[in-house]
Design brief:
The structure is a homotetramer. Chain A is α/β, with parallel strands linked by helices. Chain A folds into two domains: 4-215 and 387-444, Metallo-beta-lactamase, Chain A; 219-380, Metallo-hydrolase/oxidoreductase (Rossmann fold, 3-Layer(aba) Sandwich), CATH 3.40.50.10710. Chain A is 30% helix and 21% strand. The first copy, chain A, is built from 14 helices and 19 strands. Chain A has helices spanning 38-41, 53-59, 85-88, 91-94, 106-118, 189-198, 219-231, 249-261, 271-282, 298-311, 330-335, 359-374, 391-401, 417-425, and strands at 4-10, 19-24, 27-31, 74-80, 102-104, 128-130, 136-138, 144-149, 158-164, 167-172, 200-206, 240-244, 265-269, 293-295, 316-320, 348-352, 378-380, 405-409, 442-444. In chain A, the strands form three sheets. In chain A, strands 6-5-4-3-2-1-19 form a seven-stranded mixed β-sheet. Chain A has a six-stranded mixed β-sheet with strand order 7-8-9-10-11-18, covered by helices on one side. In chain A, helix 12 (359-374) links the parallel strand 16 (348-352) and strand 17 (378-380). The longest helix of chain A has 16 residues, at 359-374. Chain A is globular. At the A-B interface, helix 7, strand 17 and helix 13 of A face helix 7, strand 17 and helix 13 of B. Chains A, B, C, D: Homodimer.
């Protein structure tokens, strides 16, 4: 019988640069190769596109996959569960070391291809393969990959299930069980229950929100709140600027639809807005209301803003990058008066995003808020819901999958305590069935 | 021309025991006579029904209305804007000192009458008068009272507007601008705008949530979250217990309706559940789904719980008191094993309430949670929204009313800082138009 | 060669009920048998003295030592490192199950004997043996116990070192490296370095304050702050009441000496004050200034307080129990007006203690503070330092001992994260050399 | 009889840019003209030395003294109580508008002169006058200024007392009642009591630390902690770098003395280190141990660091700027590897400073800490005490001065709540005797 080994490459000491390798006998599958932004955020001189992977590893910005050198086996596939940077953002730096295809859902696949195209240092020749949620992919005689539909704060997210001769390996990063999503269908719990019955050898699972009791709020809650805030502006003459994650396509759909409801033209502004949303549109994963326009670069965005000034702020609703106060983002530039649009008293700036907890983000957002408020802007905050499951969703997950082993991932040591507590509710014991790993650790599962 | 004096009797140093008197010439109107629970919560020996008002004043539990002795004028009316205890809970102790009617909305009026009936120390002979939201009441030649519809965490809440020869006195405790409420209609903003045009001399206004930016979430958000949590239990065999504020009729309506959707019989348990909800039903302000039953005292609740055991936990959904961990409440008794219902692994306890911030509440709730979890209960928390307006709702309020003077109320000194900041956005100056008062203070408004 | 197994009996999921067993071949040594107060604090009906150990285990109040039934070997000794209840407080309930002596420092030994005498349910026949800091005790041919001097918030605290044929087992609960203590000598770092050179197989070590960077403040800091607060009262006519941990003998020595400096008679009040301090005096481990008196029971304390009233509050300085707001403590009784001493405006109440983090303590202390302040007392808070080492003291410890294995103890899972991080600074790897255990876990150390 | 008017120019909405004017009849005295760093910190492009005051006013960085235009009277003196930038840092931008001398203590006076010399935009011709603590200065027939000795986190700090025909105006920004200071004598409480008896018309007083109960810790506590941390390094071979406020002369004295105790040469590094400490030395207000050297500019500091490398890190103790992670500071440069000194494993970096609460500071310090720790540095934090009085020191202040009126200053609205509460303990009433002012407010004191 083949043995299974889990190699915790990245994302086990931090929230970011996720990468987990699973060896089944002599065959290896890699899940996610992501980026960790923190070591880069505070550092203005990083030119990532031209940097060597070893330097980025040394900075702590990408997974240290040198551990893979000592793992005996052949990497057969790289699998990405969704398109966030902390899951795909280092592919262009590391994938070329592995002679294997990169498998992901269609939307994720497009983002990965763009990632690879933008790379300046390495040429990445891996094939990319788009596997739909619900689909299966035969990796080898022994290994079949299956994508099970979940929900997350980006479209086309899946739970990856690796069928092996000794049971399933379930990689559940990142997910929430949103039963009333805004885009796509609810997570496929029925399939999860079946997989649970087939037998799960090990569950590798995020551990971000275990401290939050209950279920995470549905995207419908964000929709309700965003809609409420926008609908009250029906008679407003002021500007409305909404900032949200560029990759949060469902949210942006909501925002653009609400814009139309109050007869404003939705305009998406900013480079990442353009990239994520145009890609989603092309793949027909979202349809924005007619008249929605998207502008990415400084020239086109500023031209659009001049048009806004000319035709009237009350004719448009702007969806802009910059919710983390990122220097150079649309909102930062607006706050600093670097665009044609000047903030006036009563203009509304809505944040449909949380601040990603990190001192630099707090500082940059505080500065943007201060500048906006000085100019008379009205700030609306908190029109957001998380994309990560809460405690009771993980409870349901364990109930359905009934795994033999659990490896909490995606976060530092302390965060995993939630899974130790949850596991103990089901009779799992730390170190026997619940395994706490750190970056670089390897664990051969007991048979 | 008559002068206007505002007397801050209670609720200006704390969140509780609200009472404000407004003297217009020789005539006085009192707004609210409420209770402050904190000095009582930590003290097991308080038998409030039999206590003298002076002792309760000395404890700090009810407003110190001895300041009224020195105010020259006649109290013409006591006006209550809604039925929460911090607004009506000391009426039975103080109203008899004033020879005047007590005016409130129909639901509030019933609660006040019950309050008076339960009193053992004083006999309160004041007439009570039910004035509907939107209605007017002529207090005297000079004074007319108007109730403007708002929303709050209890039904039948209003903003009180006192029309005087020198402009309106607006008493806005407590409210939120929920534009998509679950019971009743949205706040009457049109009327507020009119009143603003007629001229508002002074706005007396709560200042609880000014630190929260944006708009407060609609009750629809709570509905969505409660419904989501309950709907997921469709195939559960476990008990479902939901605890919420007994006076939160809209929430209880939501809960009972969701119970029916998953074919469970809703049962309301606990003395205050019975009082608030039966009263609302009798007044036809709410209609619970058919089959909903309500039990108040220990004998009937425990008999009901025996029936639950017999017929199956999965046949019922229990709505229970005890979200603050109050000793003697339904949930505390269940947690302690003092009822026929025993908690088993997988039973769900949902809290559709926040913990009212106070060390005793935190301690008591922590103990209830600990006991429930030891017995295997699954805790769902945070299925709740506030009943108090956020910063931007107050911004809208000021925009509509355009008052000459602002007196932030309902909270200690520091809480009022939000109104100083907000006021300054509109050009109001501290001490000139924004007045910070403390319990016992009197302020004659500049003409 | 003998093998070493560590059994995590209690204190690995919580801060409290510490108990660790170490099996060396066929011989077992137990370190600490402590109490966990939290499950008892919130529960008024616990009569611990008359309770059976199995009931206390079921409540979670004492270590669940049933795991010991399956450990093959003979318990040769119970070793306690200091006299706090979370280390010795369950001896009277569990020690009789083991036919072996209880070894501890002289002061700890006296407290253990009192503990056993007060027991009503079990008769504990174990011999007790007092071993001085710096001393050794031959447990068996293979095992020798050594006590190395440390400092902690109670006098006569040691680090226990078990010399075995395969290296030392170091049990370091609880300690700080206070190099300028108020009572006793500084920790014996020289001996620790020697032990490190002899070879440490495993270090079992508290993990409470790893989040605090630097070194913990010396008791001299507390002395400075207490002295400063008291010396400023030189000309005061008001009462001075200082509340501190009854077992914090060094602090009480400081307080009583400062009392004398401003010509006040120090009076210790409260049952635990009497127990811990009289014991320390009898053992000559402390000498309080002449004239210091101690009263334990209600009759004598209240008689003393009447004398204070008669002779003048400014003649005395009272050292009282009650810093956690415990019901029935001296300070609670004073706050409630249940003693002859009435608080008047300007009376000073000084807290030379932290609030032990727990919702019940916060609630009870808040209520005592509220009552005292209502009566005009001036509250002085924070005249305290911790008894537990900070991050850099643990760094020094690792530098000196250079252990093969590390087992962080004394706290829940998340708290141990500090030791994972610290360990990684020294090249220790999680699960290989740093072992995270939970109550009931057993670990045979790799050879 | 003359009337007294207080004009709150700056520092009443924020902690920074302090400036208060007091008009006594036709004569005006200005207290402090300070800088507010927050609007500048987040903004890299500010070249303050060349900026116009009106632009700095518009940014919110310096007091908006245009309010002074409408005050009828002649400014007779500018008085500064100590040399921190939030009290003297805008003198060079605003003082030239007033034809009067600038009076301050000798050390403060030197700093002001340097401030003026560095100015590039305005030429400031005001005379500066050094008045020692305890001294008096006759401003006019009606007005005499007196400096009463206090303690603060910079040497030569005083409370300013303006004797007027209708009583004293006491300006108490900033102070603590450190009765056991490290440099200088304890505050002159005896003189304060006398002034209280002479009669205090109004007390203008900081309100920063009212939430902290008890007394603020003495500088001796910081000394104890710094000394403890340094003394433990006696046998270390590693670098020791201590960062503290450059103006905290007493702390730096402590650090340099401790360096000598372990036979290391103290070296002060950084521009502000040089400025504040050389000035203090020249004025003979401090004597550093023999051999202490100070280097300000990049060339000399880096030359010194090369010498450190050559002669051995263990021969020196470096006192460096950069505790707030300021870009360009010594510590930031060291952390970034921009100096000859490379951090190695075990090098110690001690922070004898708090992080000034502000998102930018938190972010910058976090980044410096991260960089240092990556290189193996050991971080020691919290070796610091505040320079601002706690609640009970303010209690003592009120007891001694017994002022007719109180104006809390130096902080935003909410911070002043502490003085409302404290005042009420003495029978002061909000708006009657305790006055809450905002920037730009004017208050004529009732007679």
């Amino acid at each position: 019988m083949v043995d299974i080994e889990v190699i915790a490459v990245g994302g086990y000491n931090e929230v970011g640069r996720n990468m987990t390798a699973v060896r089944v006998g002599k065959e290896i599958v890699i899940f996610d190769i992501g980026l960790y932004l923190d070591p880069i955020t505070g550092n203005n001189n990083v030119d990532m596109e031209n940097m060597h992977s070893l330097d980025l590893i040394q900075m702590g910005a990408i997974p240290d996959d040198t551990v893979m050198n000592s793992v005996e086996g052949t990497v057969k596939a790289i699998v990405c569960t969704h398109g966030h940077l902390d899951h795909i953002g280092a592919i262009q730096k590391l994938a070329h070391r592995y002679n294997c295809p990169i498998i992901s859902t269609p939307y994720t696949n497009e983002l990965i291809k763009q990632q690879i195209e933008g790379e300046r240092k390495f040429s990445v020749m891996n094939k990319t393969f788009a596997l739909k949620a619900g689909g299966k992919y035969t990796i080898s005689q022994n290994l079949t990959l299956e994508f099970v539909r979940v929900q997350h704060s980006i479209i086309d997210s899946v739970m990856a299930v690796l069928h092996t001769p000794v049971g399933c390996v379930v990689y559940a990063n990142d997910f929430k069980f949103d039963m009333t999503p805004v885009i796509g269908e609810a997570p496929d719990l029925a399939r999860m229950r079946e997989i649970g019955k087939e037998g799960v050898k090990v569950l590798i699972v995020e551990s971000l929100n275990l401290d939050d009791r209950g279920y995470s709020p549905s995207e419908q809650v964000a929709r309700l709140r965003v809609r409420d805030a926008i609908m009250r502006c029906e008679d407003d003459k002021n500007a409305i600027i909404v900032s949200t994650f560029a990759s949060q396509i469902a949210r942006i759909k909501t925002i653009t639809e609400c814009a139309r409801e109050i007869d404003r033209i939705p305009v998406l502004l900013g480079r990442s807005m353009e990239r994520y949303n145009t890609t989603a549109e092309i793949l027909k994963q979202v349809a924005f209301p007619q008249g929605t326009s998207i502008y990415g670069n400084r020239k086109t965005t500023d031209r659009m803003l001049r048009r806004v000034l000319k035709e009237g702020k009350d004719k448009f609703l702007l969806v802009a990058t910059g919710h983390q106060g990122e220097p150079g983002s649309m909102l930062s530039r607006i706050a600093l008066g670097e665009t044609p649009l000047k903030i006036e008293r009563g203009d509304k700036v809505m944040f449909s995003a949380n601040i990603i907890p990190n001192p630099t983000n707090y500082a940059q957002r505080a500065e943007v808020d201060r500048l906006l408020m000085r100019q008379g802007a009205r700030i609306f905050d908190g029109l957001h819901v998380t994309g990560h499951a809460y405690y009771q969703e993980h409870y349901d997950l364990l109930s359905m999958l009934n795994p033999e082993h659990i490896i909490p991932s995606h976060g530092p040591f302390a965060m995993k305590g939630g899974y130790v507590a949850l596991g103990s509710e089901f009779g799992y014991t730390l170190n026997k069935e619940v395994h706490i790993m750190q970056n670089g650790d390897r664990l051969v599962l007991p048979k």
